[in-house]
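User: Predict the structure for this protein chain, please.
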Amino acid sequence: MDNFTFYAAKPIEKYHKIDISLFISMILLWGLGIFTLLIVSQSAGERLFKDSFYFTRRQLACSLVGFVLFIAFMLLDMKVIKKMVPLIVLGSVILCILVFTPLGIEKNGARRWIKMPLRFSFQPSELVKFAVILFLANFFEKQSKVELEEDKTVLPGVIGLMFFVGLVFLQKDFSTGVFIALIGILIFFISGEKLKWMVPFAFIAIPTIILMICLEQYRMERLIGFFRPNEFASDVNYQMRNSKIAISAGGFFGNGIGKGLFRINSIPEVQADYIFAGWAEAMGFVGVILYLFLLGFFAWRGYRTAFKCPSRFSAYASFGCVSVIFLQSLVNCMVVCGLLPSTGIPLPFFSLGGSSIIMTMIMCGFILNASRGEELDEKVNKNDDSNIESLLYI
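Assistant: Here is the predicted structure, written as structure tokens:
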């Protein structure tokens, strides 16, 4: 597939206005997420905290923090963000280590969160997604400037990716670790590197993944339950079974936002990973199509931005950010519909979780920043008539 061209580091017409269509689609997705959380979490909020709007208020508070950081990453000069990459990478590593200190919070046998003020918590693995994207984008931009082919290497990138995935695995967050590895591989893919490096990586990664599944009973149960759903309907597949019932109950136009949403109350913590079932029951097939259309539109504008970026760093990093939001959304929806085993991966913009909404906003800010364009490298400016292209060799 050597005829495929990833348009980066080439002199195109600079543009300084953000992609308004991308911005509107992001705001609409966020708005739908808050609305869905409002209608599905009232029963749980009343039952647990005597406050029907408890979860919605917390999500709005985290969204406010997310919007501040969104604006910052949208307006910062891309050169400043590149200089921040080491700090972001180091910060994500430190936070992952803090999970195993007294500041860490353990839930269901896993330590994945850090205590924050006002009864909030932060999940470092969400930051790791962004850190890995920036690390690899910066690494491959530097590799593109190496003139001699024999001096080029992907080893630091592979080691860095494996290090971060290992940190997440140590937190017993298997699904997120695998997802981060997938995003990393995609960035390797679009960077134009030959994929022969994947052979030794696969010899390490595949046995490790199989071993990690076998060592944890609940992972084995989820996998077996996925292939034999009727035999585990009362335990392992309880959430999935009830989410399917809720989705089916929504019909074509949905049950609305009133008391008809009684089925979602049978899904434990529906406001988290299975929130899409609440949206589907409330809005029906029409609502599902609307969401998928908005998500697809967001992905289209985001990938368009990545392929039009004038610098490799912006191109690779914005591609990674769009992929995280888009693919994570698809994976979550497929899990809720029973098309994939339960993963514990949240639905961006929708699922309750301060870490998720904040990092989603930051990545959206970066993508919109990339849509504004940036100053081209001096080396490129010296030859405006050239058309330097990064070819993707498979």
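Confidence is low (pLDDT under 50) at residues 1-5, 9-13, 374-394.
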